[in-house]
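Translate sequence into structure tokens.
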Amino acid sequence: MSVDFELEYTSQKLSNGKIVPAFKALSSNVDLSEHDIDITIHGNIWSDLANLLKGLFMNTVKDQINKAITQQLCPQINNAIAAQHGESVVYQDLGLDWSIAHSATMDVKSQVFAIGINGLFFDNKTGEVAPPVSAPVMPFKDTAVSGKIQAFISDYLLDSLTSSVFKATNLTESAKYIVPHTMVPAGHPL
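Result follows.
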């Protein structure tokens, strides 16, 4: 048995205003032969007739699988994505906003699928606080590199990560004891 299906990438806007990925099933094809399922009915003439109708049963199974893929699979995936609210807990109280700012792009000729996320780390106790600077426009693909999967990380992401790690882990509380005053030379202004 083999199943082929075609998905369309799209997006969905959540009640919190964030935009997250979504998918739509365009088509599906189930290749299910009579040899994939073994149903044998023994008995009289009626069982022989039932064995002849096995092909009709197979078509019903194919139709049900196709229907499940096109009508149920993508809505369930989309609901699971939406339930995340465009963010995930990365570590204890450290969250990441992975919602998308723009729709993804697909260049069929170069076979490049590009998607960018907001990439804002935040302390779950405080919530999302955007830095005073805006995120830079990032490239989706470096043509000088042959890698199939490429990721670009900006200062915006790194700044929000370090700031949030300090807030979420109380690292500043423990860091103040790392350099005691006895280590600072006498007469040095603090």
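Note: Strands lie at 2-13, 19-31, 87-91, 94-97, 105-107, 112-114, 120-123.
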